[in-house]
Amino acid sequence: MNQHNITNESLGLALVLVVVALLISKKEKLGLEKDIIWSVARAVVQLIIVGYVLKYIFEVNNGWLTVLMVLFICVNAALNAKKRSRNIDNGFIISFIAITVGTSLTLSVLILTGSIEFLPMQVIPISGMIAGNAMVAVGLCYSNLNQRFADNQQKILEMLSLGATSKMASGTIIRDSIRSAMIPTVDAAKTVGLVSLPGMMSGLIFAGIDPVKAIKYQIMVTFMLLATASLSTIIAGYLAYKRFYNDRVQLKVQK
């Protein structure tokens, strides 16, 4: 049995699914046609480029090149997370610190414990999963911070007027924002195997790996995603809340 039977023709036929989405969007007047076409075109181009880059990196098997690729992933994740940091100055720097620290710490633990080896074909895909999940969590944390600071301006001002520090006045908002940002990752962990069969597990099974061994890898992925998401959102939340105050610890006007 040929386990790798995806041809250009089969990819072309799979494109029909995108056409169906376009037709539905047009019929229901959703206005998503341009976004769908742009996202699909961008995904195809990006994946083709990344495919050739990874093929080169895997063949070279250079440690420094691997580290640079991990940093490249973290930079792009930070740039995307920054898009949600509307009222947060230096959103990119905060995002980069949070995502890089979370990703680096998780990778270090996985490598030191022998769960994975420091090889490009193992480190880079794992880094992509970790940083991507952290990116979503940090972005959600920013959205929640912006919304909660806007909704609770009066309450914060009252606490500040009574002598509370910015951290005390923001404590509940920070905790609630971090908690909300973690919900997708926590829910995904609750339903893994029952609702969804995640990418790594499915990929290993497609490749002919024993399902029990594939499950072990997926359990490892679940652990690392939870750890990275929690660490990254905590770092981002506690660095970002200060940006809602000026140098005199006065709350900035939220829009």
Automatic annotation (TrEMBL):
Subcellular location(s): the record lists: Membrane
Does this UniProt record's set of keywords contain Phosphoprotein? no
For this protein, the record's Pfam families field holds: UPF0014
UniProt keywords, alphabetically? Membrane, Transmembrane, Transmembrane helix
Which stretches are transmembrane?
A: 6-24, 36-57, 63-79, 91-112, 124-145, 188-209, 215-241
Write down the superkingdom of origin: Bacteria
As recorded in UniProt, coiled-coil segments are none
Could you tell me the membrane topology recorded for this protein? Answer: Multi-pass membrane protein
Q: What is its main location?
A: membrane
UniProt xrefs under InterPro entries: FetB, UPF0014_fam
Q: Identify the GO cellular component terms for this protein.
A: plasma membrane
Which PANTHER family has this protein been placed in? PROTEIN ALUMINUM SENSITIVE 3 (PTHR30028:SF0), UPF0014 INNER MEMBRANE PROTEIN YBBM-RELATED (PTHR30028)
The entry's family comment says:
Belongs to the UPF0014 family.
**NCBIfam families the record matches:** iron efflux ABC transporter permease subunit FetB
Task: State what protein this is by name.
Answer: Iron export ABC transporter permease subunit FetB
